[in-house]
Amino acid sequence: MKNVRTRIAIVLGLMASTGLAHADTLRCGSQLISEGDRMFEVQQKCGQPVSQDIIGYKETVNHFRQVDQVQVQEWIYGPNNGMYQYLRFEGGKLVEINSKRGK
Known about the structure:
- This protein is α+β, with helices and mostly antiparallel strands.
- The chain has a single domain, classed as Beta-lactamase Inhibitory Protein, Chain:B, domain 1, CATH 3.30.1450.
- Helix content is 24%, strand content 52%.
- It has helices spanning 2-18, 39-46; strands at residues 20-23, 25-28, 31-34, 51-61, 67-80, 83-90, 93-101.
């Protein structure tokens, strides 16, 4: 049990030292968004982001073993209590939510 606590403390310490925290869900007012949600759902629940950038393209393999290219976007919300929320979309689907304290 002590070993597990030590590992958890190390992981949390590393996350804190980078200044970036990862989450699977994000509260927007009274609504929740989660990884897997579509851009339309996120915008409907959270409103317009303060920044919306296309950051590139990613190659994926579909269920027919064909290579597809999907667009990767980053949306930024905030600041909310000094925190910015960074949302990453791949192919129109939310794949990552990160929070970072603004300076």
